[in-house]
Amino acid sequence: MHVLRHPVPVISLLVIAACSGRDNSSAQALGDTVGAARRAVVLARSAVPYTVSTVANPGKITGSVAFDGVPPGDTTVIVAADQNGCAKPLVVQLLSRTGGKVANAVVWLTDVRAGRALPDDRRFELTNNDCTWSPQVQTVIAGGALNVVNYDPLAERASATDIATGDTVAIAPFTDDGQVIPYDKLLRTPGIFEFSVESRPMSRAWVVVLDQPYFAVTDSHGTFTIDGVPPGTHRIRAWHPMLGVADGTVTVAPNGTADVALRFHQ
User: Any bridge partners for residue 122, and if so which?
Assistant: First the structure.
């Protein structure tokens, strides 16, 4: 959690009708959101609302997400200090792997529409500091609020882009160090949004909005755990902004632990 260093101005977010007039030329030079992960309906809204119910003899899923091929774009972008207002050299790691296993992949069950309660915490945070976003990838709950906190003393415009359409769906100005911009309407329904600042398209973050609790983000070793899973066979999906989608199935026994290995392909 960051401590705000100055009085906090709060600026209302402008959520705009879908339009595709944003100039993405610099981002496209880096592969945009990148190749296979762009313009894809990765997370469709279900016609069946999620309901909370008792899960008898819940199990657990542990697993890993891997990719050992050639990435579809640059995996690391380095920008010298003092360019675009950055106070220090900027290193953007778009794909991090350990032994072929991928960090920052979002994993979720795509077929579960009833089960344990949603997390109580519905307020989330995304920070921009020294020209970098943190966390780079995160999951949030639909109906929650996302506070975007800016620590860079620059006049800039931040944008949120729907990766399924390429449309800019929200914009807000960065005007001061310590500024907080609340995003709430943006999180009404499931989807995946890319955040960027106009002059620094190489530095981006992705927010995955889900309406059910069966999800995880892989750690630095490419592994994850999902708890409280209803017994049965489930469809499971992994998504990474550079690699796109990897799908699989997993069978969870009552009170059991199922292991699954998901792999991205070229």
Answer: none
pLDDT reading at 44 higher than 90: no
Tell me the H-state helices in 94-178. none
> Which three-class secondary structure state does DSSP give residue 11?
coil
d(CA 185, CA 196): 18
Residue 104 has pLDDT above 90, yes or no: yes
Please enumerate in sequence order all residues whose Cβ is within 8 A of that of 185, keeping only pairs 6 or more positions apart, or say none: 13, 15
Residues comprising the chain, all counted:
266
The closest of 60, 63, 33, 70 to 262, measured between CA atoms, is: 63
Lowest mean pLDDT among 18-22, 69-73, 116-120, 202-206: 18-22
Cα distances from 96 to residues 71, 170, 217, 247, in angstroms, run 11, 28, 13, 20
CATH number for the region 14-38+57-263 comes to 2.60.40.420
Residue ranges per domain, the chain?
A: 14-38+57-263
pLDDT band at 166 (very low <50, low <70, confident <90, very high): confident
Please count the CA atoms within 13 angstroms of the CA of 177 that sit on its side-chain side. Answer: 10
Count of CA atoms in the C-beta half-sphere (13 A) of 213: 18
Tokens of 197: 């600042």
